[in-house]
């Protein structure tokens, strides 16, 4: 089993836990009226990271791609998850500042 596959599975399982509301979040986001939504959206962000890595591993398994190509593919697969997470963090940080 490849490293990319293992990391993808772990991130996907953690994302599923977030969808069910079981995820560790920073204390500043706890005990708010929107905390459940925040946890679920965090779960989606982990799924956006994990599932593409699993697909990438399945597609590239035993293909013999070089390190530069694999790094590019990993970054390309991770980009949607990172962008979603940054947007989500800015949105809820702004919401937190409005409540204070």
Structure description:
The chain has helices at residues 3-19, 35-60, 67-99. The protein has 100 residues and is mainly α. It has one domain (3-99). The radius of gyration is 16 Å and the shape is elongated.
Radius of gyration: 16 Å
Please bin the fraction of helical residues: over 70%
In DSSP terms, counting alpha (H) and pi (I) runs of 4 or more, how many helices?
Answer: 3
Instruction: Spell the H/E element sequence.
Output: HHH
Mean pLDDT: 92
Features:
single chain; 100 residues; mainly alpha; elongated
Q: What are the SSEs and their pairings?
A:
Elements: H1 3-19, H2 35-60, H3 67-99
Helix pairs in contact: 1-2, 2-3
What's this, in brief?
Helix 1 runs antiparallel to helix 2 (35-60) and helix 2 packs antiparallel against helix 3. The model has no long low-confidence stretch (mean pLDDT 92). The protein has 100 residues and is mainly alpha-helical.
């Amino acid at each position: 089993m490849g490293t990319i596959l293992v990391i993808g599975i772990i991130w996907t399982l953690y994302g599923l836990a977030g969808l069910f509301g079981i995820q560790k979040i920073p204390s500043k986001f706890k005990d708010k009226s929107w905390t459940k939504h925040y946890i679920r959206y965090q779960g989606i962000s982990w799924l956006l990271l994990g599932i593409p890595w699993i697909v990438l591993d399945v597609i590239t398994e035993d293909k013999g791609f070089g390190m530069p190509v694999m790094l590019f593919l990993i970054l390309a697969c991770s980009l949607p998850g990172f962008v979603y997470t940054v947007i989500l963090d800015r949105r809820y940080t702004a919401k937190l500042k409005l409540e204070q």
